[in-house]
Amino acid sequence: MKITNRQLRNLIKEEKAKLLKEQAAVEPALVSNKLLEGMLSSLEEKLMSEMRLDPEEVDAFAIDFMNRVGSNIETMLINLLEGRYREEY
Hints:
The protein is an all-alpha fold. The chain contains three helices and no strands.
């Protein structure tokens, strides 16, 4: 059976999402930390590549960002992963 690159990418994406969901059920803090790191890494990369900002300035921004709002975002992600934003119908 042949599988296309697109099908392979979709399978990998689905499995990754499934693993993250399973991890979230076991350890929401670990998953939220991983998500936050990914978000910040992506932002740093865009600031350096697209905005052409100095890497040292971007690093200083990242540290300041984490000090100011990192724990709040992490708490919000944990709440999301634990289902605290679901509305009861």
